[in-house]
Amino acid sequence: MDGMQFIIELIDKLIWPLVFVFALLSFKQPFTHLIPLAKKLKFKALELEFDQELRQVSQRATDAFPELEQNKKANLIALAQNMPNSAILSAWRRVDEVTETLILSATQVTDLSSPTRYKLMEDILINTNIIDTQKGKLFNELRTLRNRVAHAEGFQVGKGEAILYVELCFTLIEHLEELISKAPANEISKVS
């Protein structure tokens, strides 16, 4: 093997790793924007589910520190002062959790996995008369604003609007939790 053939073999062995590293560096910024949105990562034998693990950890934290749940509303209002969009997304996450609990306990629905999950939840709540249309309209308006905050590029909400959103979310949450506590499983039939 002469020097020229050695260099060709060396380049042949190193070119794909270098292309891979270059691609990673080139797409670093777009990937960093996509990673927080990922719910699942699968690579050969490694599979991670962020959303499910996060919910389990959150539930354990709430069980271990009940005062965290009591201060949730105050924390979200404080968060709205500095990061209104984050406060809206966090408040909606709480509405989502309570709504899911209510639907799973009050209906025969066992799977809410859908690309239009929140619309499905709204339809179930209204069509099964778990909530009346006025509360369904509030759910829809909160869902619509949440979607704008989550998906519209550059959409910003003011501090006042974020605080009002958090207040409305917790009003709805309290009503839904009251329905959960009052009715036995699979027996919510009258409009609240």
Task: Give the key terms.
single chain, 192 residues, mainly alpha, 2 domains, two-stranded antiparallel ribbon, elongated, disordered C terminus
Describe the protein.
The protein is mainly alpha-helical and about 190 residues long. The chain has two domains: about 5-35, no CATH class; about 70-180, Four Helix Bundle (Hemerythrin (Met), subunit A) (Up-down Bundle), CATH 1.20.120. About 70% of the residues lie in helices and about 5% in strands. It is built from nine helices and two strands. It has a two-stranded antiparallel sheet. A hairpin with a 2-residue loop joins strand 1 and strand 2 (about 45-50). Helix 6 packs across helix 7 and helix 8 crosses helix 9. The radius of gyration is 23 Å and the shape is elongated. The relative contact order is 0.10. The model is unreliable at about 185-190 (pLDDT under 50).
